[in-house]
Amino acid sequence: MAAPYVPPSTEGKPFVPAWVPPPATKADLEFANLHTIDLALLDSPDEAVVNELVQTAKTAIKEDGFLYLVDYGISLEQLHRQFSLAQYLHSNISNEDKERLLWDPESGLFAGYKPRFGWKRQAGKVDGIEHFNFYADEFKSLDKVPTCIHPFMDEIRAFSEYLTGSVNRRLLKLLSRVLELPDEYLWEKVQAREMPVNQGYIRHALFHPLIEETKSASGGLRMHGHCDYGTTTMLFSVPITCLQIWQDERWKYVKYNPGSLVINIGETLEILSGGHFKATRHRVFEAPEDQRHEQRLSIVLFNASEGDLQMTPAIESPLIQREGCLDYPGVYSEFKRMREAGLPVPTNRQWREVQIANMREVTDTANNRIGADQVVIDGKKYTQREFLGVKVVLPV
Ligand SMILES: [Fe+2]
């Protein structure tokens, strides 16, 4: 059995007010239908139980690219402590620290503090989203994190280490089994394994209620439809319902499921699996009416592969050998087209850095329109952009 998470002691630390989850929405929304994976079942001595789990994972990843993970070793109380810390960080970060730790996405990293003025270092229009992003460097030196959070870095580190080294490792074991590869294949050959956050990062995000000016420019959109570029993304399900996924050719909300981890597959695994795993398109949209006045606190761990990884299908997979690679519009097909044309495909690091450096603002009305970034395909609006020769087409 996998060992459960054991957090460091809170004794002798400053008082941290408990995060109180806001009430779930009562709105009658169209929710995405997602599968649930009970990760503890992977340790079952009953082979039939494990096989069924692998089959469920296979279906979930093929159909949705999104799933709920439960029983992964962290209790609701332990999870809420992390939300309390994230809330504490955003309530207590000083103006001096906001300036000193200001991020610079043009560097290809989101490391540090994001103010609520867009996705550049230079302040743009208000988007109402604040972050603190902890990459490996933020764990190496206390100078890189807000002073208010210093007493709690042991807890943020232990939590991140558990997610990276236990939860994600077990999840990748399950996904390796779906590809019929050795258990440690994705962990050892694909995933960056440095502790505590590999080559990815953990994000404490705070979405403030939309102001009218932002809403009129963005039409209620808070983050554009996109795919994540890493291996797996681990989002803790939160009551303020804003996450949407593209399912059945339309956007559907992801329902609050207390304590569960919402997992989505990144583009690295879509390419590695020859299209058998789907990097699902998702976006962040305005909350339903009854939650619009609330702040949305969110914690996300973005897992990344080795930066030098050349992303090509794992042809040793018996599943790929038997069924071939699956072509559908997406990054797998684009990378394939480039390889076949003899064009250089980006490494994983290049791919993630170019996208971070070129985030488009939801308030950018000059580019977010037909004739600029947007095109109409079969009567639906899509954003079409190109990065390093790779065409990316995403529903608006
Ligand atoms: Fe995402």
TrEMBL record:
What does the record list as coiled-coil region(s)?
none
Limits of the Isopenicillin N synthase-like Fe(2+) 2OG dioxygenase domain: 220-302
Residue spans crossing the bilayer: none
Record flagged with keyword Ribonucleoprotein: no
- Keyword line: Iron, Metal-binding, Oxidoreductase
A GO term, aspect molecular function: metal ion binding
* Domain of life (superkingdom): Eukaryota
Under Pfam families, the record lists: 2OG-FeII_Oxy, DIOX_N
Listed Gene3D superfamilies: B-lactam Antibiotic, Isopenicillin N Synthase, Chain
Where's the Non-haem dioxygenase N-terminal domain?
36-137
Q: What is this protein called?
A: Fe2OG dioxygenase domain-containing protein
Q: What is the lineage of its organism?
A: Eukaryota, Fungi, Dikarya, Basidiomycota, Agaricomycotina
